[in-house]
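Renewal narrative, Specific Aim 1. Our central claim is that a sequence can be written position by position from structural information alone. The example that follows is taken directly from our test logs and has not been curated for this report. It begins with the structure tokens describing the chain, in the order in which they were read.
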């Protein structure tokens, strides 16, 4: 059992922190910007809630963060009320936010000066993966630090991998989102084509999902796409944030992302139609109702 803190109890963090307490049996202290959410978590899982990230992090061996973006991350880690202010030398901060590789390196450097280790560890698997404790976690940091943190991270994951040095986790998450963007657009076009052709799409998907076209997106989203249901899952707003990070990084490293850039604009159109909170599979909406 470890003494840990979890900062950020949003759609993902709420359940991830819950697994640390319920499955791992760890001593968990939480912080959330909206205090009522933290109190709700304590009522559901036990543990303690604190008024600031620094107070939550005090005495913790490992501190987890899972917030919205780079600026949110800086706000809960840096400054007199931030997590670093409450952490002792030799402790570890594991960041599960999907953010830039740049901010990961920045925070790792600040932490190093205080003797605090940093692991960037964005996750994949969506809300369902968080609820069921089967997320994929891609990490960047030092091997020795990762070895200490991995058994705790495994409480909410089915796979935890150290990819490389600081920032590697975030870069890998960018690869993940780039791949998903292309997959969902291809699936949208295929499903829409099948519907227009008058095919029994339940039979079609059951058949082709067993072959080379099969994917997680096909198995988990094709049926709802056919039904035109999108009010669940990983929001378009979040995907646009993630693709924006990927596109910015591509400008720095020279990678060409023509499909990702195009799909990002398709998602912008979905947002303009009021679908910012719809699941990313809502790309098909643009084909069904043009």
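The sequence written for that structure reads:
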């Amino acid at each position: 059992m470890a003494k840990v803190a979890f900062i950020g109890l949003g759609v993902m963090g709420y359940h991830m922190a819950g697994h640390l307490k319920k499955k791992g049996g760890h001593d968990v202290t939480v912080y959330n910007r909206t205090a009522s959410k933290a109190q709700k978590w304590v009522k559901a899982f036990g543990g303690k809630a604190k008024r600031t990230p620094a107070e939550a992090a005090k005495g913790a061996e490992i501190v987890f963060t899972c917030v919205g973006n780079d600026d949110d991350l800086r706000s809960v880690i840096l400054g007199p009320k931030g997590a670093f202010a409450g952490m002792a030398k030799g402790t570890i901060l594991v960041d599960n936010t999907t953010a830039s590789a740049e901010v990961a390196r920045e925070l790792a450097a600040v932490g190093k000066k205080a003797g605090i280790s940093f692991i960037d560890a964005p996750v994949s698997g969506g809300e369902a993966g968080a609820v069921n404790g089967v997320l994929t976690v891609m990490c960047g940091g030092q091997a020795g630090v990762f070895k200490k943190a991995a058994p705790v991270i495994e409480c909410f994951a089915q796979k935890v991998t150290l990819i490389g040095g600081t920032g590697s986790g975030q870069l890998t998450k960018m690869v993940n989102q780039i791949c998903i963007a292309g997959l969902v657009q291809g699936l949208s076009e295929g499903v829409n084509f099948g519907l227009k052709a008058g095919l029994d799409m339940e039979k079609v998907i059951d058949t082709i999902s067993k072959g080379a076209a099969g994917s997680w997106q096909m198995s988990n989203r094709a049926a709802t796409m056919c039904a035109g249901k999108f009010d669940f899952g990983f929001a378009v707003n979040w995907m646009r944030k993630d693709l924006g990070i990927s596109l910015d990084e591509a400008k720095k490293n020279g990678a060409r992302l023509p499909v990702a850039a195009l799909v990002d604009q398709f998602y912008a159109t979905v947002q303009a139609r009021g679908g910012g909170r719809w699941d990313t599979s809502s790309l098909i909406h643009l084909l069904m109702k043009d």
